[in-house]
Each structure stands twice: as C-alpha cells, then as structure tokens.
C-alpha cells in the first residue's frame, strides 16, 4: 500500500492475489443483475490465481473514470473493454471516488491464458479486493473486515457470478438457502469454519483434455437455461444438494461429498445437452477419464472423485493422504488422455492475499 499526501494529488496503490475456485454444486442459470437461480458451493483453490495491482491518483478536475489497463505486461484491448464496462457500471453505485481520478490496473495470471483454466473468477475477485482495499484507504474503513469481504464478494459477482466465491478461504456458498443463516444471492459466504480437516488439504488435479476456448460461453449457457424445460426441477435439486454438501463438508463425509460432486458435474453437462440448441462440451477424453476414475475407485476403494467445469477438462478431487497412489494412477492412465500430457496440480487454498 502507498499513500502519498505530499503537496501533489492524493495517490494510493495496492495489490491483491486472488485464486480461482472450483464449483462442487454448480451455478447454472441467472436472472436480473447477476443473481443466481440456485445456490452453489465451491472449493477455493491456491495455485491458479490472478495478481492485480491498482494505483489511483486523485484528479479533482475530472468527473469521469480515466483508466489505464495492462495485462501480462502489455495492452489488451479486448480485456480492457470488458473491465472498462464493468468499472463504469460499479463506479456510481459503489465506488464514486473513482470518478475523480486516474486508475491504473496491471494484472497477470499464474497460468497461461489458453491453458483451459477459467480466469474470470480469479480476475474479477482480485480486481474487487483491490478496489475495496483502495476504498478503505480513501474512506478510512477497516481493511479486512467482514463488511469489506462481503462488498468484495458482491462486486466480484457483478463482474462474473462464480468470482464472488473466490474471496473466501477453503470453501464458500453463494445463493440464499433457507437453512443457512446469512446466505444470500447478493454475495457469497465463507464456509471455512464449517469444513472438516480432510477437505482443507484436498487436491484438485486438472486434466487439460483440451486447452481450446469453449464453443459456447458460460454466459450463453446461463441464458439457455431460460428455455430449458428441466430448469425448475434443476434449481430445486441444486439447493437441496447444496444443503447436503455443506453437511458432508462439515462431517468429513467423503462418500456423500463424492456422490453429490460427480452428480453435479454430470447434471451440468446434461443440462447443456438438453438445451435448445443442444451442445456438448465434453470430449472423448473427458468421458474416458471419468470412466477410468470410477473404475479406479471401485478397484482400490480410494476416494478419488471428478468434477467438470463448463468445458472438457476434468478436475480430480481427492484427500492429501492418497497423493502418491493417485499420482501413479494419473501418470499411467490419465496423462495420455491430456493435451500434450498437460495436468495442472492445484489444492484447496487460503483465499486472497494482499501483495503490496
Ligand atoms: C459452470 O461465473 O463464468 O463454472 O456470471 O456469466 O460470468 P457469469 O458466469 P460464470 O459461470 C460459471 C459456471 C460454472 C459453475 C460455477 O462456477 O458455479
């Protein structure tokens, strides 16, 4: 952090690193201004992350946002356009100070852009944490308070729904569940205190079956839920599964965790297949990996489970104590299914970190 209060204009700067997250119960379908149609639950990851540095310099003669945006060391008009639109939407209602100054954003990911890892969750949450931190410096609010995290979650949500879960360590739930006090459609709630030890060091090895951009974006996928005849039953099912999964995370119940997580992954892709128009994001390699994981589990009794994002890559979830055995299985049977043998090893993590 820096705050220059010399003779010139006020200047503040900050930097945040925020991780990606992997949904266990999936957010799929939204309404109004980025509000979810059902509750979702995720693990916060640690390795796949975005680092974002902000600096803001007061310019009292200005009444509109001035932005400079650098991605991985260079200008990027496509990303800049998305960030500019996002900032224009949130400035007036949430960060009016932004209007009277110049904002400079420098951001980079810990993973290559075309690696098949979604970057919007880590990118939007890192930007939201940094903006909220700037606000605390300017307004004197308490940094790191639960109110700040809640606002960062809300702002992240407006950038990309799933991003709102990335501001909390270990695990988070987004979406109102009657059985869970404090849960909300507006922001996510951290579940860290409620998660059993076995899940705190869980692995998420991501099999990169294909690094290509998805043929149908998540935004288009959410929109297709509107005409999907199974949508009402799906939203009800997701809320029931979210409540059951939270109980399983609390109790360290691996069987229930695995069943719900795998059912959710396949339900997400089934919803895509029965959208109109229908589409398929899994590849042959995804299906082969799923079948091999189930076979391995039956034969060894090792609690290795899979989940899928809105894409072909397969996330392998398992407890730390089985790392060696699972690694051997992956090298022998799953690595050959991956694009150039690529696997990204991630783990459940501690959430956002302030880096300057
Ligand atoms: C399948 O958060 O990317 O990963 O709100 O339109 O930015 P937008 O969608 P996004 O959707 C993520 C969908 C998902 C499931 C999940 O993360 O819950």
Question: TL;DR?
Answer:
With 356 residues, the chain is of the alpha+beta class. The chain has nine helices and 14 strands.
Molecular structure report:
This protein has 356 residues and is α+β, with helices and mostly antiparallel strands. The protein folds into 2 domains: 2-195, Ribosomal Protein S5, domain 2, CATH 3.30.230.10; 199-347, GHMP kinase, C-terminal domain (Alpha-Beta Plaits). Helix content is 37%, strand content 24%. It contains 9 helices and 14 strands. Strands 1, 2, 5, 6, 7, 8, 9 and 14 form an 8-stranded mixed β-sheet that branches. Strands 11-12-10-13 form a 4-stranded antiparallel β-sheet. A two-stranded antiparallel sheet has the order 3-4. Helix 2 (120-139) crosses helix 3 (146-159) and helix 6 (231-251) packs antiparallel against helix 7. It is globular. Ligand DP6 binds next to helix 5.
- Integer count of domains: 2
**Multimeric state:** single chain
Radius of gyration equals 21 Å
The main pleated sheet reads as: 8 strands, mixed
Dominant shape = globular
Q: What is the N-to-C succession of helices and strands?
A: EEEEEEHEHHEEHEHHHHEEHEE
* Strand-pairing-aware structural class: alpha+beta
Helical amount: 25-40%
Tally of alpha and pi helices: 9
CATH hierarchy, class of the largest domain: Alpha Beta
User: How far apart are the first and last residues' alpha carbons, in Å?
Assistant: 5 Å
Which ligands, by name, code or SMILES, are bound? ligand DP6
The percentage of residues in β strands lies in 15-25%
Number of strands: 14
What is the CATH topology classification name of the largest domain? Answer: Ribosomal Protein S5, domain 2
Which spans of ≥5 residues are poorly predicted at pLDDT below 50? none
Average residue pLDDT: 94
**What CATH architecture of the largest domain do you see?**
2-Layer Sandwich
């Amino acid at each position: 952090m820096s705050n220059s209060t010399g003779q010139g204009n006020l200047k503040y700067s900050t930097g945040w690193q925020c991780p990606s997250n992997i949904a266990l119960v999936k957010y799929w379908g939204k309404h109004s201004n980025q509000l979810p149609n059902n509750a979702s639950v995720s693990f916060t990851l640690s390795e796949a992350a975005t680092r974002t540095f902000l600096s803001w310099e007061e310019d009292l003669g200005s009444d509109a946002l001035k932005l400079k945006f650098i991605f991985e060391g260079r200008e990027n008009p496509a990303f800049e356009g998305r960030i500019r639109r996002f900032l224009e939407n949130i400035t007036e209602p949430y960060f009016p100070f932004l209007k009277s100054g110049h904002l400079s954003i420098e951001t980079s990911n810990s993973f290559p852009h075309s690696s098949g890892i979604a970057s919007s969750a880590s990118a939007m949450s890192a930007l939201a944490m940094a903006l909220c931190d700037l606000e605390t410096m300017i307004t004197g609010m308490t940094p790191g308070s639960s109110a700040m995290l809640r606002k960062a979650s809300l702002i992240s949500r407006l950038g990309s729904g799933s991003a709102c879960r990335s501001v909390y360590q270990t695990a988070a739930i987004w979406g109102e569940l009657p059985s869970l006090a404090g849960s909300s459609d507006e922001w996510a709630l951290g579940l860290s205190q409620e998660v059993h030890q076995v899940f705190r060091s869980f692995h998420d090895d991501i099999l990169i079956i294909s690094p290509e951009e998805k043929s149908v974006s998540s935004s288009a996928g959410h929109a297709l839920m509107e005409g999907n005849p199974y949508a009402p039953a799906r939203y009800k099912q997701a809320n029931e599964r979210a409540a059951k999964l939270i109980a399983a995370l609390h109790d360290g119940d691996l069987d229930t965790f695995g069943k719900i997580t795998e059912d959710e992954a396949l339900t997400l892709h089934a919803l895509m297949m029965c959208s109109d128009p229908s589409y398929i994001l899994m590849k042959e390699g995804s299906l082969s990996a799923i079948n091999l994981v189930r076979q391995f589990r039956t034969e060894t009794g090792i609690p290795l489970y899979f989940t899928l994002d809105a894409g072909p890559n397969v996330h392998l979830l398992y407890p730390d104590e089985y790392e060696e055995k699972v690694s051997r299985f992956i090298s022998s049977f799953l690595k050959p299914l991956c694009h150039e043998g690529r696997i990204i090893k991630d783990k459940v993590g501690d959430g956002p970190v302030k880096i300057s």
